[in-house]
């Protein structure tokens, strides 16, 4: 898959949480398929930054590593100097581990997003794309709640930034196989050790995509964005139990739901927002719930039927072979 990165030539792309799975894959996609694009990785982990710098040493003239936290607006303003585009991927995201510490989620996922927006406006950044999650739709846990608020901050920010030449939008997707903390790792280890995999009871389903697909989607949305919209890909889904079997686990053991508000099924597009969304092929585009600027062209596409939603229990299903192939990427 060749990512859509031609429009990024000559630009500097700043990735918050850049040493994470998406940031790592996105940096590779941009640097490997452009000649003049530059990438700045912004994250808290010095060891992971050192490892990434070594891995990408062939691109050392176009890659910059910046230590910092999205909680620190002053540091963001310094690091964002001469940046054209921000991909905001930094977040606390483990549903169970963060459920007892919602104040930490708020500091990073909500206030951190606000810091990114304000610092980006101060330093003249032209485009900001928030990487969001299906957990923020009809949120059932503190993590989902903070992603919902982050989306609201980013889309509403166009009321401030649009007139000054800045666009801010969101892309929302589901579970990324082989990302940091992915359940696919646990299932693969179970298969290697010949052990049964622990799977949450109740026929739980999730949306699945690969890291390369996630990075390619981000690059595409950076080209398409008009400001204020949320991009929603039509991802396929599968039961979590099917993923365990696709990874080669010899069997499964059903366990209770994790604490913190784990849902049986996820929703990428809710019926409450479908009335302002359009179908543009392989994406839904959700327009903002406020009047568009006069010169901002509205999205044209097929209107969705009343009450439409895109859920993991009714979305197109991945086969075991397809899941196994995705898990190898």
Describe the structure.
There is one protein chain. This protein is 35% helix and 21% strand. By secondary structure, the chain is of the alpha/beta class. The strands form four sheets. A ten-stranded mixed β-sheet has the order 3-2-1-4-5-6-10-15-14-16, sandwiched between helices. Strands 7-9-11 form a three-stranded mixed β-sheet. Strands 8-12 form a two-stranded parallel sheet. The radius of gyration is 19 Å and the shape is globular.
Please outline the major beta sheet.
Answer: 10 strands, mixed
Q: Termini, distance in Å?
A: 12 Å
Number of strands: 17
**Structural class, judged by helices and strands?**
alpha/beta
Residues in β-strands, percent? 15-25%
Order of helices and strands: EHEHEHEHHEHHEEHEEHEEHEEEEEEH
Mean pLDDT: 93
Q: Give the spatial strand order of the biggest sheet.
A: 3-2-1-4-5-6-10-15-14-16
Choose one word for the global shape.
Answer: globular
Fraction in helix: 25-40%
**How many H/I helical runs?**
11
Radius of gyration: 19 Å
Unreliable segments (pLDDT under 50, ≥5 consecutive)?
Answer: none
